[in-house]
Specification:
Blueprint: H1 6-34, H2 38-64, H3 75-90, H4 94-125, H5 129-162
Helix pairs in contact: 1-2, 1-3, 1-4, 2-5, 3-4, 4-5
Length: 164
């Protein structure tokens, strides 16, 4: 598809976000399994449920534009998730692993927030106020997840520091 209009770029970015969310859905169970702290495990499980809703919202938006979400791979998310997977393979001490998993998850959240903020703004410009509302809801949820991760990190980082 030739990127000669904002509308085409908007659809392309929505597809990229859909791909990112689908990749996250594959990674979250592995992150939950690797995590040692019970609240972190539960946080990853909770986020998987929320991510499924994000996928549904994107599918609804993309369908309303007479497009398919398929056909694009989010290489940015692929790279972020690969870094988290490499950390798990290194098998660091439990609290250190949890601290690293939180850092990896926050990288993911920030990447998503940048993407959702962008498409929300484009939706407004393009006159898709219904899309903008759905995208803002997702953006708010991603921000809430980031805040929850920060609260967990404040406890887990101290535990990881005390392990030395």
């Amino acid at each position: 598809m030739e990127m000669d209009t904002l509308a085409k770029l908007y659809v392309d970015e929505l597809k990229d976000l859909w791909s990112a969310e689908k990749q996250i859905l594959q990674a979250l169970p592995k992150m939950a399994k690797a995590a040692k702290a019970r609240p972190l495990k539960q946080g990853f499980r909770d986020h998987a449920r929320q991510t499924r809703e994000h996928v549904r919202r994107l599918e609804r938006i993309i369908k309303s534009l007479d497009a398919s979400p398929r056909g694009k791979k989010c290489v940015g998310m692929e790279g972020l998730l690969k870094e988290g997977a490499e950390l798990i393979k290194e098998r660091p001490e439990a609290d250190v692993l949890d601290a690293g998993l939180i850092a990896a998850a926050q990288h993911v959240e920030h990447y998503e927030m940048a993407g959702y903020g962008t498409v929300r703004t484009w939706a407004k410009v393009l006159g898709h106020s219904d899309h903008a509302r759905l995208l803002q809801r997702t953006l708010n949820e991603e921000g809430d997840t980031d805040k929850r991760l920060t609260k967990l990190a404040e406890k887990i980082n101290v535990a990881a520091e005390n392990d030395e």
